[in-house]
Amino acid sequence: MLQLVDKSEIERRIPSPVDGEAEEIVRGIIADIRRRGQAALYEYCVKFGDIEKDCPLMIDPDELKKAAQSIPSADRALLERTAERIRLFAQAQKNALHAVSVPIPGGTAGHDISPVERACCYAPGGRFPLPSSVLMTAVTARAAGVPSVWVTSPRPVPVTLAAAYIAGADGFVAAGGAQAVAAFAFGAGDVPACDVIVGPGNRYVTAAKKLVSGHVAIDMLAGPSELTVLADDTADPETVAADLLAQAEHDVVAVPVLVSDSRSLIDRVNREIERQLQVLDTRATATLSLQKGFAVLVRDVEEGVRICDQLAPEHLEIMTAAADEVAARCRHYGGLFIGGGTAEVLGDYGAGPNHTLPTGGTARYTGGLSVLHFLRVRTWIRISDPAGAEVLVRDAARLAELEGLKGHARSARRRLTAACKG
Questions:
Q1: Which of 206, 204, 234, 228 is CA-nearest to residue 218?
Q2: Is 314 designated active site?
Q3: What is the pTM of this model?
């Protein structure tokens, strides 16, 4: 059951996305792979169980196609339907972005939007295969227009390989953890260096992404998965409990949270959690996760909204009267799920929006994975009328002088000379 905690304890219960111990462990792995390349990558993959010894590290598109053909047709159709929903949403995001051209003195300025050249999409493969993460990352990269999309995941099973094929991956590497991140950040033999690395992972993956950030773009630093449910007395306790347990079975460090203005609802949800836990196959994991979670009793729904904003959770479910109005007042979350019919797991499994979302309060300043993570906004300037640009040139020169940069001022004023000669 969820422990009832005081509101003053909330801040210290928000988990940090990166822990220092993991960072120190992966630092050496990254350095070794950067130094020794694919040989070191292979050694770490065997050591940590990503692959069996003497098994291939690289899986080409033909093998991915065979995997897709080998799984049951119903499963293949499921992956295809899910991929299409993800693609449609990502394409709509991209269609909302436009090139810009605006007049400036003597010419025009603007921006264009273009994809990176190569993306690495990480999918966890620990206790369970996660083909959904393959689709969420690789389909989104393709929708953004990335020419070369690679997937990496440890211990891949046919359904994971099939998902990579359906997503249109150009290649697959059977690697996980910090070793996969390092290989795709710096290149390792046949493993190409990428421009961006995206996808959820454990604490070692997150620590590695932090350390390679700057050499390569990353999507976010994602810590333990989180679900906060904001519910009042109109909520169905059986549904609330089911959603919290779905989150709890993710991982022993997942954080299920209930915020409510009804002590009666909190008690009923806890009784339902205990009942449902008895028949949950993943109860060993969920039981430990519930110890990380908690419940908060608030005065009213408005205070509940403030508490949810303080948590800035990865997933936020609104199960209250007038759920649309309450949701509109929430400001900080990774993904928002409005009303009792909107299970968070529908977002996990391909309603359309991405399930790779910020955790640990980072939703206060960033959002979930989208086509934007694979796109660059590049600006340009063109002066076609040097005489018309005189005011711009003089302003630039004077600002340069104010900053003590005489060479900048001289460079600007050269354009006045050129305009006179013209």
A1: 206
A2: yes
A3: 0.94
